[in-house]
Amino acid sequence: MAGGWAMFPLAALSIAAIYIFVERYLTIKKASRNPSDFLGRLKSLVIAGDVQGARMLCAQTNSPISRMLEKGISRIGQPLKSIEASIENVGKIEIAKLEKNLSGLATVAGAAPMLGFLGTVTGMIGAFIAIAQAEGSISPKLLSGGIYEAMVTTAAGLIIGLPAYVGYNFLVSKIDSIVHDMEYSSIEFIDLLQEPQA
């Protein structure tokens, strides 16, 4: 309460940041789970010509990679460009799902310190208004209220903004890792389809 009005939106931003981070972290962690032997088993089924078995394996493995490759398997028999395009389209949808609400965390990381500084400015304005209205000698107590409010909002804004910024970059790095795995898997799958033609 000592920080004044700015503390209320800062509290809302902190709750939003915690919610977005936890929700995204759990979603990304779930998406990164891919059985180590998944790609090997899928290759074996495709080489054996068991397209239905390969699709079933993808359906049982709940991950962005499996959903992406399932689309490619469903297009087997069509031109390679069509298969590549379908895999790429599903890949884009999966990446968009992973990045959902991530911009909100970036907004909190930028807005919280700025809101804290706005609270600082209004706190200092309050202190100077008190000085202007004071008659006679100015006591330190008169200044301390506005300055205290100013410092509290600055600190609160930075305390919220810095972890939000670190959390955002942490999640982005996790998504980049999943995207790399998706790209690698799609290349492996396309190469596998080209092998019999070689």
Could you walk me through the main structural features you see in this protein, from its secondary elements to its overall organization?
The chain has one domain (6-194). The protein is built from 7 helices and no strands. By secondary structure, the protein is an all-alpha fold.
List keywords for this structure.
198 residues; 0% strand; MotA_ExbB_proton_chnl; mainly alpha; protein transport; transmembrane helix; transport; 7 helices; membrane
Return Rg in Å: 27 Å
Annotation, overall tally of beta strands:
0
Report low-confidence residues grouped into runs of 5 or more.
none
Mean pLDDT: 85
Strand content: under 5%
Q: How many separate helices?
A: 7
What is the element string, with H for helices and E for strands?
A: HHHHHHH
- Helix and strand content put the structural class at mainly alpha
Count of distinct structural domains: 1
Gross geometry: rod-shaped
Distance between the termini: 72 Å
- What kind of sheet is the major sheet? none
Helix content: over 70%
